Amino acid sequence: MGEIGKDKRWDVMYDFADYLKTTFPRVHKDLKTETVNTHGLVYTWEGSNKDLKPTLLMAHQDVVPVPDATVDSWTHPPFEGVYDGSYIWGRGASDCKNQLIAILETLELLLDADYKPKRSIVVSFGFDEEISGRRGAGHLAPFLFERYGTDGIAVAVDEGSTFEKVWGQTFAKPGVGEKGYTDVQVVVRMPGGHSSIPSDHTSIGVASELIQAIEAQQYPAHLTDENPYLGQLYCGAEHAPDFPKKLSKLLAARAKSQPTCPGSNKKKTDHLALEAAKAGPATKYLMQTSQAVDVIAGGVKVNALPERTEIVINHRINVGESPQTAFDHLTALATPLAHKYNLTLHAFDGVPEAPLAISLSKSPNTLAVAPVTPTAVDVVSPYAVLAGTVRAVYGEDVVVAPGIMTGNTDTRYYWDLTRHIFRFGPGFDVELDNGMGSIHTVDERVSVTNHVNAVRWFMMFVRNMDEAELEI
Ligand SMILES: [Zn+2]
Asked: 352 near 366, Cβ under 8 Å?
């Protein structure tokens, strides 16, 4: 995307802002409405007690595209917002225009009811979350930081994990952590020349050898104490009827054998993580750094030796590790190869490529693992308020457990504003139990029961936060 004002594709956001204005007239009349970097939306409902830190509700206005080739596969057209009596169909219906509309609907209803908050309510809507959020959340977060300062917000709720039935038990899993992120680019440059008199190895061959070495060695599955998935396992062991016995035993053993020195068991095989990872890749990668060689380019002509081959490796970094873990690992793999082929190694030294060299560099969107949100329930914490609200709306049968996100939301820009960030979609339809509602694919939809429940949840959460005398 080009700059706002130049690239016309951003202008669709004006229409959306107009739609919100007509649909939620009281919000736009009675609350302070501000725009940040043209399309970022901030609504502020000032509370009567200025000593209380605000509740922040977030969502994003943008959606991923619908590829032309898939339009015909949709049951209802992706951009018509068809409501068939059970579902609202369309791109963005569950990621996450449902959340955005539910937030505004909540405020409109509270205004109609003459509600007077003590604790301020702040709403922040980005507009480019699906392409990293740099122009939206990247501007909104500093704007709010200027106003509220470090830890100036009591709690932030953004899109994220939802509800899931596992081990015979329904869980709500607000995301309290996010894995880190980095793409590493590797460029191998070797002499060109005519392919009739080749060297034994070309840049393609050397890059291939590196790829083999990368894939031969996966990152270890490892559960640190602060990994939210460990909390999920403990909750499962305590509350889920079908929780695997083997995992229960390993959990009990882990609880007994806590190392006295933090990190002293790091090199040991993590049997609990390995056993839990057997549930499948979606679970495994909650406790393991992922690596995927996703891009390769090299060579131009069949009779010319390739002077340059490039690969890009995507990583999502496990809790307890950092992008540096991946950089060190790749450097260790590339070092012997550079020696073997008499090439210079530029490992993350700012040289993206050079003749007769293997160069490794990190992408500018490299992101550390998010700080983990506290999940204490023995004190009045935002997590306790959130969990209590879930059980008030959906009943005591739902167990709330800490969730972890393998992707990143707009909250990546908000870490300094609050320690209490939840990536959580509070809407749930007990009858349908359909989780994420086909996000990013054909037939994205949300059940209207799910949506109404989301509004009920936000109504109650805002009021519970207002009453709560937070201890952390
Ligand atoms: Zn989203």
From this structure: no
